[in-house]
Amino acid sequence: MIDHKNRSFYRRHWRDRVFRRVAVGCVGFAVLALLTLLTSIISQGWGAFVSYSVEIQAQDIPPNLPSSDRAAVVAIITSFLQTPVASKQDVIRLFSADAGSQLVAWLKQPQGPLRLTLSDDADMVLKHSYQDSPLKAEQRKILNDLKTLGVVRRNVHFTFFTAGDSREPELVGIYSALMGSLLTLATAFVMAFPIGVMTAIYLTEYAKPSAWRTWVEININNLAAVPSIVFGLLGLSLFIQFLGWPRSTPLVGGAVLALIILPTLVIATTAALKSVPTSIRMAALAMGASKTQMVFHHVVPYSIPGIMTGSILSMAHILGETAPLLLIGMVAFIVDVPGGITEAATTLPVQIFLWSESPERAFAEKTAGAILVLLVFLLIMNALAIILRHRHQKTWS
Fold first, then answer.
1. How does strand 114-117 pair with strand 50-56?
2. What is the percent of the chain where pLDDT is above 90?
3. How far apart are CA 391 and CA 342, in angstroms?
4. Mean pLDDT for the stretch of residues 327-348
5. What is the distance between the alpha carbons of residues 249 and 184, in angstroms, rounded to a whole number?
6. In what side-by-side order are the strands of the sheet with 50-56?
7. What is the rounded distance in angstroms from the CA atom of residue 93 to the CA atom of residue 166?
8. Is residue 115 helix, strand or coil?
9. What is the dihedral sign for C-alpha 284, 289, 293, 297?
């Protein structure tokens, strides 16, 4: 009898140890997968935040430059090289498409050294030492000579944060897409927040238990699980084809994203309202407050941390949405920053999608860099939700 009890005791504790080891292994696998993903993105995307350029001091620029900006760039570079250049086109293709305009702007107002941005092929060779680069042997020799002379500099690539889209990888930026995302998110929040919160308040505090209320709550929960591309089809037919709103604008994009987060906002607000104890409601009514005063003076203020947390997490969710925005035409080539919600715009996830389809290797680097920026915004929004929840959370005894 004693032996049987001991065997049962050890068997139960053996199962406990096995379960703990399996759980630790699952957590370790998840952490390893996350670290692998982040390492892959960072290793590919760090180059988007730095760029190489040729920096020439004002006193080293030869006099009597040619009138053509490209010819002037060639004259400046060849004056530094110790060996003659076989083809001027080899020099021109080492620099970005706006190298001539950079030179013209500097000649009009020379401030500091002249910086000529290298082309994407030359930039990728300097960053990653690719042997299969489209650069010819003569161009590689020119690039190595410039490095030996000490005029090649690595700088922070501020253009990536201040420019819009471009056909040239070395000139692209995320600024227009980032502003388009902010306008779209702001439009979605303004549309969805009041409707979602008021719907949750009515269903929780005012609607009496009935089959109609149960039916509405079930459908709201079902809508929260509908794929986002379905909302994109709804937005295409309702906002663009029926209402005639302009395509590829933050107005339509925000309206579609508002439809996506509306069920989540209702559910999160309902949970926040139900977390307030019934004693708060009873005490307010006992002091002579009306039903509306009880709701908006007591219940809603105590629910604000949960409501704001749900709202921020909902906005973080739609920040990465791409499929519904593709259906409403937010895939335009946008260089300038949109001036309002009715102007053509794109968003950061859509911009990432467009760059990922480009054949140039440098666009893969820009894609990974834009993904890192998107992840930073997601981390900031999630951290803000956690801070709000912990700072304003109340414990009811």
1. antiparallel
2. 23
3. 38
4. 85
5. 8
6. 114-117, 50-56, 152-156
7. 17
8. strand
9. negative
Query: CA Rg, the chain, in Å?
Result: 30
Number of residues that make up the chain: 397
CA distance 74 to 87: 10
Beta bridge partners of 156: 50
Instruction: Answer yes or no: are the C-beta atoms of 217 and 204 closer than 8 Å.
Output: no
Q: Which two tokens stand for residue 201?
A: 């308040």
Find out whether 369 and 49 touch, Cβ atoms under 8 Å: yes
What stretches of the chain adopt beta strand conformation (E)? 50-56, 114-117, 152-156
Contact 118, 133 (CB under 8 A): no
Cβ(252)–Cβ(332) below 8 Å? no
The answer to whether residue 1 scores a pLDDT higher than 70 is no
Instruction: Count Cβ atoms below 10 Å from residue 295 Cβ, excluding itself.
Output: 20
Sole residue written with tokens 């935040």:
49
Q: What is the Cα–Cα distance from 322 to 92, expressed in whole angstroms?
A: 38
pTM of the model: 0.86
SS3 content of the chain, % helix, strand, coil (to 5): 70, 5, 25
Token pair in block for residue 137: 């042997």
Q: In angstroms, rounded to a whole number, what is the distance separating the alpha carbons of residues 145 and 149?
A: 6
The answer to whether the beta carbons of residues 157 and 51 sit under 8 Å apart is yes
Q: Does the pLDDT of residue 258 top 90, yes or no?
A: yes
